[in-house]
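Milestone 3.1: sequence recovery, worked example.
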C-alpha cells in the first residue's frame, strides 16, 4: 500500500454451490477495509467473485434438473449480494463462466505450453466415484475408500491429461520464499509452505477428461477447476487482451485468503505465473478461521451465529465489521458468539464511541448553541499527529486489531478530556476560553475519528460526519482531511439519533 503504487486486493472466488456464511463475510470485510484505506491514499481496486466449474457443480446441477450453466446463473446473485450486505464495495465481481475469464485461461495455458511446462501424461490412481476423489494406495482401507462415511469399493482410473511441470519451479520458489519473508504472512503459514517446498514438489495434472463442466481445451478435456480458478485474479484485469490497461496498472496485487488454500496461492499460482513470464503476486495473507460458537450460548432470536445475514439484521453491518476485525489478530482462529458481539456493541461502540458523540454535541448545543468554536491547538492535536501513519501502517500489515486499538486510544483520550476537564464546571466558573478549547478538541477529534473509521465502519462514520454538520462524506484523501483545524469555526452541528443504541440480551 505504498503511495507510489496502485493497490489491488482480491478475495478467494467462492464456490458457487456453497452457502454464504460468516467466514466468507470475514475475508470480504477485511478486503474492503484494506481497499478503503488504500483509496484514501491513491488508486486502489478490489476484486471478488465466484468459482463455478468442476464436477461437484455439474452433479448438483443434474440433481436440480438444470444444465450447469442454468444452475450457476441461478446461484450467482446470492454471492453478488454478499459484499453489499456488509457494506463492502468491490470494483469488480468475476465469474469463472464469463467469456473474459475463459479467454485468459486459454491464453495462459498456451503460454505455459509454449514454454515447455505443460506436457501430456496419464493421470491414474484409485478412484472413488462416489467421493470423486483419487486416493493413494497407502490410504485405502481393505481396498476400499478410506472416507469413513463411504467405504465403497474404488476403481483403477486412468485418464490422459495435461500436466504442469511444477517440479521445475521448486528451487526458484524456495529462493523466493527465503528472499521475501513477507510474501506469505503470517509466519505460521510461511513455515508450513517452506516445509512443503523443502519436501519437494511434484508435477500435477491441470486438465480432466472424465467430465466436461469446465473450460474446454482445444484437443479435448477441460481445465482442472483450481487451475482455472486461480487465473481469475488476472482475467479480471484484462490480461492478455488489454494488458496495457488495468493489468499494467494494478498487477501484481495482494491476495487475501483463508489458511486452507495457502498452497494453491503461494506455490501453484506463483509457479503458473512464472511459467507465463508474468510477475508473482505481491503478497498473500492467509487469515485464520472463524470456528463454531465455541460452546457459547447463541441468542434465542438467532438460530445460528454463523449466518451472517442474521447477524447483520441484529447488529448492523458496521458493528459486525468492527467485531470481526477487533476480536482476534487477523492470522488467528477465533470463535464468535452473539453474547460477545452484543458486549462489544454495547461497550466499545455504544458507550465509548456513541456516547462520546452524544455527550460532546449535547454540551456544544447547551453552551454554544451547537456552533463549533474557534480552533484550539491543545493536547489533542499533539496526540493525533502520528495517528494516520500508525493506523495506515497497521492496516497495510493486516494488523486490523492494532489499528482499531490506536483509534480507540483517541476515543479514550476524548472521553477522558470530558471527565477530567468537566465542561459543566468550566461553564459555571465562566472559563469560556478553556471551554471553547475543549469543545473544539472534541469536535475536531471526532472529525478525525470519522475519517479514520470510515474504512471500518462506513455508515456510522458517515453519521458522525453528518452530525458534526459537515458536507459530503468522510471518504477523503487522508493527506488533505487529516490536518488539525480542518473543522471550521461556526459550523452548525446537527445532533441526531444515537449511533449504537443498546442491544439487550433476549429475555431468559
Ligand atoms: O476455497 N473462517 O472457495 P470457498 C474464515 N473456490 N474464513 C473462511 C471460513 C471460516 N470458517 N470459511 C470460508 C474456495 N472462509 C475456492 C477458492 S480462489 C482462486 C478459489 C473464507 O467457497 C476464506 O477466505 O470454500 C476461505 O479461504 C474461503 O472462504 C473459501 O471459500
Amino acid at each position: 500500500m505504498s503511495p507510489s503504487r496502485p493497490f489491488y486486493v482480491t478475495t478467494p472466488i467462492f464456490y458457487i454451490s456453497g452457502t454464504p456464511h460468516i467466514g466468507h463475510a470475514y475475508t470480504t470485510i477485511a478486503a474492503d477495509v484494506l481497499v478503503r484505506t488504500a483509496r484514501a491514499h491513491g488508486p486502489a481496486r478490489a476484486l471478488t467473485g465466484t468459482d463455478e466449474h468442476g464436477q461437484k457443480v455439474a452433479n448438483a446441477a443434474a440433481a436440480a434438473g438444470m444444465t450447469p450453466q442454468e444452475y450457476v446463473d441461478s446461484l450467482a446473485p446470492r454471492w453478488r449480494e454478499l459484499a453489499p450486505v456488509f457494506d463492502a464495495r468491490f470494483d469488480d465481481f468475476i465469474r469463472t463462466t464469463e467469456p473474459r475469464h475463459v479467454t485468459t485461461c486459454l491464453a495462459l495455458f498456451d503460454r505455459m505450453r509454449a514454454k515447455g511446462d505443460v506436457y501430456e501424461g496419464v493421470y491414474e490412481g484409485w478412484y472413488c466415484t462416489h467421493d470423486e476423489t483419487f486416493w493413494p494406495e497407502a490410504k485405502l482401507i481393505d481396498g476400499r475408500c478410506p472416507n469413513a462415511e463411504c467405504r465403497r469399493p474404488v476403481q483403477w482410473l486412468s485418464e490422459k491429461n495435461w500436466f504442469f511441470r511444477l517440479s521445475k519451479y521448486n528451487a526458484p520458489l524456495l529462493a523466493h520464499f527465503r528472499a521475501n519473508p513477507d510474501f506469505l504472512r503470517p509466519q505460521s503459514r510461511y513455515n508450513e509452505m517452506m516445509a512443503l517446498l523443502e519436501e519437494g514438489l511434484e508435477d500435477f495434472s491441470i486438465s480432466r477428461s472424465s467430465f466436461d463442466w469446465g473450460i474446454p481445451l482445444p484437443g479435448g478435456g477441460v481445465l482442472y477447476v483450481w487451475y482455472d480458478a486461480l487465473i481469475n485474479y488476472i482475467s479480471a484485469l484484462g490480461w492478455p487482451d488489454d494488458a496495457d490497461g488495468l493489468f499494467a496498472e494494478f498487477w501484481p496485487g495482494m491476495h487475501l485468503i483463508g489458511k486452507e488454500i495457502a498452497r494453491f496461492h503461494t506455490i501453484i499460482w506463483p509457479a503458473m505465473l512464472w511459467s507465463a513470464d508474468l510477475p508473482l503476486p505481491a503478497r498473500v495473507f492467509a487469515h485464520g478461521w472463524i470456528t463454531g460458537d465455541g460452546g457459547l450460548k447463541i441468542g434465542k432470536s438467532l438460530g445460528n451465529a454463523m449466518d451472517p445475514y442474521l447477524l447483520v439484521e441484529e447488529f448492523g453491518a458496521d458493528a459486525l465489521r468492527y467485531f470481526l476485525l477487533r476480536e482476534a489478530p487477523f492470522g488467528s482462529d477465533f470463535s464468535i458468539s452473539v453474547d460477545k458481539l452484543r458486549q462489544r456493541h454495547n461497550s466499545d461502540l455504544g458507550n465509548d464511541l456513541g456516547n462520546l458523540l452524544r455527550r460532546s454535541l449535547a454540551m456544544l448545543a447547551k453552551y454554544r448553541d451547537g456552533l463549533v468554536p474557534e480552533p484550539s491547538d491543545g493536547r489533542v492535536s499533539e496526540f493525533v499527529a502520528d495517528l494516520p501513519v500508525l493506523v495506515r501502517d497497521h492496516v497495510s500489515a493486516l494488523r486490523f486489531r492494532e489499528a482499531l486499538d490506536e483509534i480507540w486510544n483517541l476515543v479514550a483520550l476524548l472521553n477522558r478530556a470530558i471527565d477530567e476537564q468537566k465542561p459543566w464546571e468550566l461553564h459555571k466558573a465562566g472559563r469560556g476560553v478553556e471551554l471553547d478549547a475543549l469543545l473544539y478538541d472534541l469536535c475536531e477529534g471526532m472529525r478525525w475519528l470519522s475519517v479514520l473509521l470510515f474504512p471500518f465502519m462506513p455508515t456510522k462514520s458517515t453519521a458522525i460526519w453528518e452530525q458534526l454538520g459537515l458536507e459530503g462524506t468522510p471518504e477523503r484523501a487522508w493527506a488533505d482531511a487529516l490536518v488539525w483545524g480542518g473543522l471550521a469555526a461556526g459550523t452548525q452541528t446537527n445532533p441526531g439519533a444515537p449511533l449504537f443504541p443498546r442491544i439487550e440480551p433476549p429475555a431468559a
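The CA atoms of residues 387 and 406 lie 7 Å apart. The chain has 21 helices and 14 strands.
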